[in-house]
Specification:
- By secondary structure, the protein is of the alpha+beta class.
- Helix content is 42%, strand content 13%.
- It is built from eleven helices and eight strands.
- It has a four-stranded mixed beta sheet. The protein has a four-stranded antiparallel beta sheet with strand order 2-3-7-6, with no helix packed on it.
- Strand 6 and strand 7 (213-224) form a beta hairpin.
- Helix 3 (72-84) runs parallel beside helix 7.
Length: 393
């Protein structure tokens, strides 16, 4: 296993680090270190445009569409340096990490030319229309309908947990387009503009006090007939391809952000004396070991990546980091003690570590629960028999 990066890759790291330090220490110092997913949306949109201007928005994409043709290792390096420099949460992470790669894989040349440059330049923000009130982890149970009417697709239904929909210009929607179809059959993958009379976005307030998620209602919403990825009725194939991107390289570089969070917990323990407790020290050591194991696991995946694709070991990563971060949130609260249960202001404006605890409760649920992840590992990586799925047969 390669436990480091090549000299050329370190040159790439130095270039990225220098640019990020200059920008986040200069014109964008006001968003450096921001952790909220909903604060300062206009400044973060400005930041998306600046990244795009400098070619740092989508480093793994082809240069023809605004990327740098970066290798898998370079993509991870950039993500590491982004976190190390205190870069704010990407307002367009759905567009960059999910919509864009899916359009690259399944889109026509016309669709690539229409959508990819606008994402890379930070001009169009995207959100995801997958989950519904009766179709979360059981995605094949979606009931949102779509049908052709003249030169448009017309959409009726509801999506939920649509992250950052209130800031988005486009949403990709998985909808049932064949009457009477069930399970994964008869679905289509549509690209839909958000700003139109038939789309209503209603924020959902979370326990953290933020409203990252939304309910999104489609009441006769329309999109051009050409805005379909893949063929009508075969959207499941596209939807599963997108989930591969969600669970792949986009999550491999999170350790640097986790490093920042663990360092904050250690600093708090030293400040308030919790570090003198042998049980707290033991849990901190366990967290440190877990983080290093993630690091070595990521390097092992990169070592064995072929043709820019990760091997099946990458399927284990989501359950690994989600469980680790959930435990870190609990450790943070135990380090803080009663001080972690109070807010300096009203409206649930908790400091960073209590907010980490509250948010991390969702880590083992969103993006596929730990139970779903175990099924994926068993069936796709290990080749074990499929779990009985009722409608999915």
């Amino acid at each position: 296993m390669k436990l480091g990066f090549s000299p050329d890759e370190e040159v790439f790291r130095a270039e990225a680090a220098a640019w990020l330090t200059a920008e986040l220490g200069g014109p964008f110092a006001d968003v450096r270190g921001l952790t909220s997913l909903t604060d300062a949306p206009e400044r973060r949109r400005d930041w998306e445009r600046r990244l795009g201007e400098a070619g740092w928005s989508c480093v793994g994409w082809p240069k023809a569409y605004g990327g740098r043709d970066a290798t898998l290792a370079q993509q991870v390096i950039f993500a590491e340096e982004y976190a190390r420099a205190g870069g704010p949460p990407r307002l367009n992470h759905i567009g960059i990490e999910l919509a864009g790669p899916t359009i690259l894989a399944f889109g026509t040349d016309e669709q690539k030319a229409r959508f990819l440059p606008a994402i890379a330049k930070g001009e169009e923000i995207w959100c995801q229309g997958y989950s519904e009130p009766g179709a979360g982890s059981d995605l094949a149970n979606v009931r949102t309908r779509a049908w052709r009417e003249d030169d448009d697709w017309v959409i009726e239904g509801q999506k939920v947990w649509t992250s950052l929909a209130q800031f988005s210009d486009w949403i990709f929607v998985i909808a049932r387009s064949e009457e009477g179809s069930r399970g994964p059959k008869g679905l289509s993958f549509l690209l839909v503009p958000v700003d139109q009379p038939g789309v209503t976005v209603r924020p959902i307030h979370q326990i953290t006090g933020e409203a990252e998620f939304n309910e999104t209602f489609f009441d006769g919403a329309r999109t051009d007939a050409a805005n379909i990825l893949g063929t009508p009725g075969d959207g499941w194939k596209v939807a599963m391809g997108l989930l591969g991107f969600e669970r792949g390289v986009s999550t491999l570089a999170q350790q640097m952000g986790f490093r920042n969070e663990l360092d904050a917990v250690i600093a708090a323990a030293r400040t308030n004396g919790a570090a003198k407790d042998p049980l707290i020290r033991q849990r901190i050591a366990k967290a440190e070991i877990g983080l290093r194991l993630m690091r070595y696991g990521a390097l092992r995946m990169l070592t064995h990546a072929e043709d820019g694709k990760l091997n099946p070991a990458a399927l284990t990563y989501k359950i690994q980091w989600a469980t680790w971060r959930r435990d870190l949130g609990e450790l943070a609260m135990d380090v803080l003690g009663q001080a972690g249960e109070t807010t300096p202001g009203g409206d649930y404006a908790f400091p960073a570590l209590p907010n980490l605890f509250l948010y991390s409760r969702a880590d083992t649920i969103y993006g596929g629960t730990n139970e779903i992840q175990r099924n994926i590992i068993a069936e796709r990586a290990l080749g074990l028999p499929r779990e009985p799925r009722g409608d999915l047969k």
